[in-house]
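Lab manual, section 2.4: Encoding a predicted structure.

Procedure: take the sequence of the chain (58 residues), apply the prediction step described in section 2.3, and record the output as structure tokens. A sample record is shown.
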Amino acid sequence: MTKEEQAIFEYELYKLSMEYQKCMDEYLKSQIQQDISFLSSVLQGSQKRNSQSRSTRY
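Recorded output:
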């Protein structure tokens, strides 16, 4: 994942978090929470891959 893609994912995660806090509908909140979980897992996976690739270069 490029740094630009990572920045976009992080921004989307931020927007979803703000939307989640304002949302009053429980069904929508659960859907937003699923999206937050997905984006978080993608970002964590990307960060792990980046740190592993950096450690194998040395």
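Check your result against the sample. The longest helix spans residues 26-57.
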